[in-house]
Each structure stands twice: as C-alpha cells, then as structure tokens.
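Weekly structure sync, notes
Attendees: PL (lead), two postdocs, one rotation student
Agenda item 3: pending single-chain targets
PL asked that the sequence for the first pending target be pasted directly into the notes so everyone works from the same version. It is reproduced below exactly as submitted, 255 residues in total.
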Amino acid sequence: MTDGMAKGEAWSSGANLRGGIERLAEVARTFVQELAKGVELAVEDAKQGWREISPAITQGCANLVREGWFPDDDWPWSTLPDLASTDVAGHEQDLVEHFEERAADICERASREYPDRRGILEQAFSAHERGEFALSTPVLIAQAEGITVEVLGEPGYQACSAKGSVPSYRLGKHLDDRSLDDVLLRPFFEAFVRRPPVVATEADRQAIARPGLNRHLVLHGMDTSYGTRANSCRAMSLLNWVCSVLSEKDVRKKP
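Predicted structure, written out during the meeting:
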C-alpha cells in the first residue's frame, strides 16, 4: 500500500468518525430538548395541580392549626384536602398516635440542634411517656418559644406593639418557596400568623369560641385543665414545627 493510499484511508476513517460523533451529538441534543420539553410540561402540570388543590390544602392546614396541631412531613399530606371540610376533632386520635410514634425522633432532632436544651427536652418527653401530661405540656411549649428567641433574638410568635405587628413574620420570612419542604410549611405559617388559639392573646381569645390549648394560660398557671394526652402531643407538634421552620436556615443571631 502506498503512502498516499494509507493517508487517504486515514482521512476517510477520520471523516467517518467525525460524522459519527456529529450524528451522536445531534441525537443527544434532540434527546435533551425533548427531555426539557417533557420536564417543562411536567412542571406546569404540577403547578396546575397545586393551584387546583392549594385552597383545600391551605384550609386543611388552617383547620389543623386552629385546633393546635402542626403536622410534620411524615403526616399523610393527602388528608389535608379532606380536613378542609371535616371536623379535625374526628382525627385527633390519629394525630395523637402519629406524634407519639414520632416523639423519640422529635426529641432527638431538637436536642441535636439545640444541645443546651437536651436535658430539659428529654425530661419533658419522658414525662409524656409516663402519662404526666401536666408536666410535659408547659415544658414543650416553653422550649418551642425559647428556641425562637435563641434563633431570632425575640419571641417568634408574640404580639409586640400596639399596632398589632407580630414577630411571627420573622419565622415565615425564612421560608424558601424554592424548597418543597418550605412550600409545605408555608400554609401552616399563614394560618399561624392569624393568631390561632395556641398563641392567641387575651384580646384574641375573647373572639375565639373554643380557645383550646393556649401558651399564655398554661405558662402563667391560669389554665388548670390543660394536662391531657392530646395537649401534650399538640405541644410536641408545635416544638417540632418551630424546629422545622428554623432548621438548617442560616438565621441564628441575625437581626
């Protein structure tokens, strides 16, 4: 074989290789474009689906918060639309059982994120386990509020001015709507900022037909009937919700 023939074959082989690569690249580009279209359609479908069910979910969250419950991401969220039109009291036993199953994890998470509180938290959860709900409930409520003070520098959900401004907004402003977890937390925050019974002031309580568990009445010794299994679980859910809102957010000691 002459040098010319060898060079010709080499060029031909190289051209075939380049052509193959170009065809492969074109196939890859087409695939990526189609995939992007599919993802875009899926995202739009998801947004449309959320728009359709969002009012029911928001109302379901509001109903739960009004009864003092703050379900976490392990709660079956598919039940929220149903809770928009049904009595939450009918689900109380399910909520109690849910939080008792989650109690050890909630205690460990809060203790890990706020180690100075571990001893107090462990005693409070142990009191609940022993059925000493009059002891567990106020401690869990106090620790939830104390965590907001530790992280935000002031109570995260306590009225602070005559104008009715509430620092509870400080909890909500750390929610990131690009995060699915935070998107799911937001309806609870929106219900929370409307002053549900658990954080209602005296003026708020006068307008509430069924006050239920209230941090002020419990912590100031004005309620002597709060010591129930359900209320202890409510306090547990509040603690867990506060930790969820503030968890892994770079908000500590910020003004």
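Discussion points:
- Residues 159-169, 250-255 have pLDDT under 50 and may be disordered.
- Residues 26 and 231 are 63 Å apart (CA to CA).
Action: rotation student to compare against the earlier draft before next sync.
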